[in-house]
Design goal:
This protein is mainly α and 147 residues long. The protein contains 6 helices and 4 strands.
C-alpha cells in the first residue's frame, strides 16, 4: 500500500503513546456474604490480549449460576480454576520480559518453530486440550534445552 505508506511517513505524532501495563494480582477471596468480585476487580491478568474481558464474562456467568443455586461460595473455586491458566501464562510472559537471555532463547525457538508458538497461543486463549498443553510444554522444554 504505497500511497498509505507515503501519507503515514509525512504524518506527525498526534499524541503521546499510551498503553496498558500487564499487572497480575490474585486475591485470597473474591466473594464474601452476598458480594462477589468479577473482572479486573477479582484479579488482574494480561492487559494486552483481551483475556481480562473473556474472564469477566466467564466469571459473570459463574456468579449468576452460584446466585441461582443460592451458594455464592461455589464461585470461589470456579474463579480459582478460571484464573489458573491465564496466571500461569502471564507469569511465563513476565519472566521472559525480565530476563533478556531467556527472552532471546524463547524468541529464537519460536522463530524457528512457528507451530510451537501457535500451540502456546492456543493454550493462552484456552483452546487447547490437556494433552496439547502437556505435549506443548514437553516440546518447549526440549527445544529450550537443545537451543
Amino acid at each position: 500500500m504505497p500511497e498509505l505508506a507515503e501519507r503515514i511517513s509525512r504524518a506527525g505524532q498526534g499524541s503521546r503513546e499510551r498503553g496498558a501495563i500487564t499487572l497480575m494480582h490474585a486475591l485470597r477471596r473474591v466473594s464474601v456474604g452476598n458480594v462477589a468480585l468479577v473482572g479486573d476487580a477479582s484479579g488482574g491478568v494480561d492487559a494486552i490480549t483481551g483475556e481480562g474481558m473473556r474472564l469477566t464474562f466467564q466469571q459473570a456467568t459463574a456468579v449468576a449460576a452460584a446466585i441461582a443455586r443460592g451458594e455464592l461460595r461455589t464461585y470461589e473455586e470456579a474463579h480459582r480454576r478460571m484464573l489458573m491458566r491465564p496466571m500461569w501464562m502471564g507469569k511465563l510472559i513476565l519472566q521472559m520480559s525480565r530476563r533478556a537471555k531467556l527472552r532471546g532463547r524463547m524468541l529464537g525457538i519460536f522463530a524457528e518453530n512457528p507451530k510451537l508458538f501457535a500451540q502456546l497461543l492456543s493454550i493462552h486463549v484456552g483452546q487447547a486440550t490437556l494433552g496439547r498443553v502437556l505435549s506443548t510444554g514437553a516440546q518447549l522444554g526440549w527445544e529450550f534445552l537443545a537451543a
